[in-house]
Amino acid sequence: MASEAIDRIVADFRALEASLPGRGAAWLDHARRDALDWFADRGFPTARDEDWKYTNTAAIERRPMKAVTARGSVSADQVRGLVFAELPCHLLVFLDGRFDPTFSSLGALPAGVSIRSLAEVIAQDGQRVQSLLAREPANAFGALNLAFMTDGVVIELSRNAVVERPIHLLYIASQAETSVHYRNLIVADENAQATVVEHYAGPEGCSYLTNAVTTIVGAANSNVEHYKLQQESAQAFHVAGIHATQARDSRFISHSIALGGAIARNDITTRLAAEGAECTLNGLYMVGGRQLVDHHTRIDHDKPRGTSREFYRGVLDGAARGVFNGKVVVHPNAQHTDAQQSNHNLLLSKAAQVDTKPQLEIFADDVKCTHGATVGQLDDGMLFYLRARGIEPEVAKALLIYAFAHDIVGRIRLDPLKRRIERHLISMLPEGERIKELV
Amino acid sequence: MLQIRDLHASVDGKPILKGITLNVNAGEVHAIMGPNGSGKSTLANVLAGRAGYEVTHGEVVYQGRNLLDLSPEDRARDGVFLAFQYPVEIPGVSNVYLLKAALNAIRKHRGLPEVDAMDFLALVRDKMKLMEMKEEMLYRSVNEGFSGGEKKRNEILQMAILEPALAILDETDSGLDIDALKVVANGVNGLRGPERAMIMVTHYQRLLDYIVPDFVHVLSQGRIVKSGGRDLAHELERRGYGWIEGEAKAVAAARAGA
Prior knowledge:
Number of strands of chain B: 12
Oligomer: heterodimer
Number of strands of chain A: 20
Largest sheet of chain B: 6 strands, mixed
Largest sheet of chain A: 10 strands, mixed
Number of helices of chain A: 11
């Protein structure tokens, strides 16, 4: 089974290779082939692999999922339903693995800011991104990503550049039984600042694989706020890595909002590589049915006086499964680290399940680190209290679930995005419409 | 308004109430006193409909209907209000949501339209002033991070807004300093009226100096062992619960002997 899937993917690569962006640039051809060889040798992760213990990729392996060769089609209405009309932003739309200028509106950019498609950058001056592309840790999906990547965004902010409007990256899938591989690079020089929204969506009922890797490099005193809104179809597979490296006094905020997918796996890591760096990782996963959503996060405190905050919450209904694995490593040199992590899970049904694993590894002695994880059901005491005030049990439940999830949604600083998630939350609740006037 | 007849109730299979009979008419304030473990809070929770309190015998008739047949929310909509001994903290649900949801649920039940947003705020502000609460508390999560006194005040605020026919105050005075007690008592007294009945469950006589009851009942080991007027509370304060319990035992022994 496993080798069959590998053979199929290798054959797919051979057939596609000549048409991949950057073809002919020796360094990239080699990098792609090396990555494919790496994958062909090792294949997909198995349950024996500690990082994939709870997430079985067999369902992904079983599907043919050929890499897309051309853009499909999407209607203006579909795009309109996904963009944030009330949010002035720089919009880049990617359709089936390729930048789509028709629906994109980059708008005027401030001085010192460059936002381009990866395919374009590779065609024009690929050397520029060579080292960044080679940067991420080797794993099966990372290797497939490098071998097959077709496009993505390259955001470069020069010293002191500030992008006031958020950069909205909308990735739309339209073709069933295909895979798309996106690679994004965000590089912020000293004091630069930007807010980036990575937004993944596909039509309901459509099964496909999105495999995305984003590299973020924050120079000294830079600010990068990153949102990932995963709104894939409930049949889709979504695997994504977001990997940041932070220089002195830099700030990185990550929000991961996972609202759907047959299997969704997010690896979010940041390395506080210099003194005084600060990061916040927020996450909300809310799924039902037989969906699985897995977040693996890792924060490396390399140097002194770093601060990290991590707030993750999950709401699981039906026979859904959630996985949270949050590793915080405080290296020997990282004195005066201040790290806090929490993961709270709400199970709405007997069959729903969560595996939560906070992991603190502390090798410095003068640090402040806390973590906490809980898994529970709706609180009977709270439910009774609301009922004793005349509120129906269904409405009381909806209120409590909403309140639980809103702890994370409330941390979203882009109002139109926040409102979108709030509306979505309400629509997911059985009696959601009835609390609309209340919350 | 409320007739409790020979009520027996158990918690986890353990009998707690062993035959309570009590009549409460509109306009009356009844105090139920008794030592810890006598069943006071169990009675309050049975009346409000909390799960885990099993009625094994007897009946409770409220406004001509069998109260025990009603869900907790239906009891609330029909005018029963429990001021909790331990008000629950509900992170993320603000006080104002709760008040609005509760008021509208009750109004809907009575065939009234939902309250207008402006009228609602005016009503809430007015009642908050009475309870000496700051408006910012409206936008805080229900009871979260509230002091003991703030929580109890918040209960009475809800009661003032929901205007129940029957209010059950479960240990509303415990954990309050004298200033907070005065505010709470003032709020409760403001709600006394010919159409409203109140049952105050309390361990301490102190509360009854501020909310003067019409009747006092002493609960011991799941039974009302003595009833009387407001003076009974003072006697209890002077002589302690041991006196009543001793008297009750003597009565029981005499009965057993006869």
